[in-house]
Amino acid sequence: MGQLLSYTINSSVYLAILYIMYKWFIADKNNPGFNRHVILAIYIAALTAPLLPGIASAANNIAEPAFTGNIQNMGTNNIALPQDTGIKYGFAAIAICMYAAGTALALAASLFTYIRLVRLIRGGEKATTGKYTIVLNTKQKEAPFSWFKYIVLNKADYNLPNSYILTHEKSHIDHRHWADLILAEAFTILQWFNPAAWLMREELKTVHEYQADATVVKSGCDIHEYQMLLIKKAAGARFCHLPTA
C-alpha cells in the first residue's frame, strides 16, 4: 500500500501540472475532438511518468537518507535513529490509513451510483434500434444520458417530434465516451485527494457534450431549435454524479 500511495502522489502531481497547462493553452480552442485526445493523453502521461526509470530513481534518491559517516566511530549517545525512524513510520502508517479510507469511500460511492444505474436500466422499458438499446424511464426529472449501448430517456423526450436528443446520445455511444469516463472515474477514486482529478473529469464530460453537439449540428438540425432544447435540458437534473455521457 505504501508503494501505491507513493506512486499515486507522484501521478497526481503530474496530472495537476498537465491539467493547468491544458487550461492555459488548449481548453479554449473550439475543437472538442482534439481536446478529448489531449485529455486522454494527459491521463496516460500521468499514469506512466512515475514509472519512467529516470524519474523513479530520482525520487528514490531523494527519499533515501544521506549518511556518509563511519558507523564504527559512533558513540551510543549519538544514536537517535530508532526514535526518529519510529516517528517516520508512524506518520507513514497514518497517511496510508487515511489514503486507504478515502479510496474505499470513493469506490463505495461509485459502486452505489452504478448499482442505481443498473437498476434504472433493468427497470425501464427497452426498445432495440440497431446497436443501440433505448431505455424508457418514468422519472420525468431525469435528463437523458447514455451508457455503453444504452440510451436512457423519459417518455416525454422519447415522444418529441425531432430526434435531436437521440442523435446526441447516439454520438456519445459512437465515440465510446463511456470508456473515457471509466478512466476518469478510476482517477477520481485513486486520487480522491487531488482536485485536478475531479476537475479533469468534469472537463472531459464538457468536451464530450461539445463533441456530441457538433454531431447533431452536422446532421442538419435547426440550430435555433436545438439551442432552445439545450437550454431547456440544462435546467434538468442529471443522474446523481454518475460519469455518464
Topology at a glance:
Blueprint: H1 2-25, H2 32-48, H3 53-63, H4 81-123, E1 125-129, E2 132-137, E3 145-147, E4 150-154, H5 155-158, H6 164-174, H7 177-190, H8 195-218, H9 223-234
Parallel strand pairs: 2-4
Antiparallel strand pairs: 1-2, 3-4
- End-to-end separation in angstroms reads 33 Å
By secondary-structure content and strand pairing, the structural class works out as: alpha+beta
The biggest beta sheet reads: 4 strands, mixed
Mean pLDDT: 83
How many β strands by DSSP? 4
Helix percent reads: 55-70%
Describe this entry's structure for a reader.
The structure is a single chain. The protein has 245 residues and is of the alpha+beta class. 65% of the residues lie in helices and 8% in strands. A four-stranded mixed sheet has the order 1-2-4-3, sandwiched between helices. Strand 1 (125-129) and strand 2 (132-137) form a beta hairpin. Helix 1 runs antiparallel to helix 2 (32-48) and helix 6 (164-174) crosses helix 8. The longest helix has 43 residues, at 81-123. The chain starts with a helix and ends in an 11-residue tail after the last helix. The model is unreliable at 62-76 (pLDDT under 50).
